[in-house]
Amino acid sequence: MNSELQEKLKLDHPILLDAVIECEDGWYKLIDKFCRKMERKYKSAVSINNIEQRTGTLRFVFTFHAVGNNLLKHTKILKLILDTELKSEKTCEVCGKRAKLRLSDDKFVFVLCDKHLDWMKHEDLVEIEEHEL
Ligand SMILES: [Zn+2]
């Protein structure tokens, strides 16, 4: 993600203050929306250590704080994280438009729209059929 967008995310969301962000610009809105919800509903319950693209999709590495034994709260926070990660499966990492999981010949997975298929010089990307997932 470009440094300008990273800076904006960190200024807008204290939850990301110490986070390392390692993904492309297309997931900016997903991350922004996620942080808004987290901060509105579960303020200071979680800090985000790392946001990254792993095996094609968005992953959050995080630490729970002050949730104690509140299992329901734990579950809701995990659901919010998981929902955001799942949305990234259909969101182009480059531009944020609707996209699909793509597998390159050298077995790397990306979420890209048709327009950004050749992004990262992987011109041989092929679509993963739904039934293979
Ligand atoms: Zn795209």
Description of the structure:
This protein is of the alpha+beta class and 133 residues long. The chain has 2 domains: 3-88, no CATH class; 100-132, no CATH class. 31% of the residues lie in helices and 23% in strands. It is built from 3 helices and 6 strands. The chain has helices spanning 3-12, 28-41, 71-87; strands spanning 20-22, 46-54, 57-64, 100-103, 109-112, 126-127. The strands form 2 sheets. It has a 3-stranded mixed β-sheet, with helices on one face. Strands 5-4-6 form a 3-stranded antiparallel β-sheet, with no helix packed on it. The longest helix is centred in the middle third of the chain and has 17 residues, at 71-87. The chain is globular and about 45 Å long. The two termini are 27 Å apart. The mean pLDDT is 88. Bound molecules: zinc ion (ZN). Zinc ion (ZN) binds at residues 92, 94-95, 97, 112-113, 115-116. Residues 92, 94-95, 97, 112-113, 115-116 line the site of zinc ion.
